Amino acid sequence: MWFSDKLNEAGQPIEAWDGLYGGEVAKSGTYFWVIEAEFKNNKSLGRYRNQQ
Length: 52
Description:
Distance between the termini: 18 Å
Mean pLDDT: 79
Order of helices and strands: EEEE
Oligomer: single chain
Structural class: mainly beta
């Protein structure tokens, strides 16, 4: 699992996943992502996508 709440002035992430899971290089394969966000106006967003 990877998590970051570090954003630049434009609201874009300033970090990226380093390819490690549990301290080891993740295997090649199919992954999915999940995003949960809460904005300054108190609106929220929750989405996911399969990566194949």
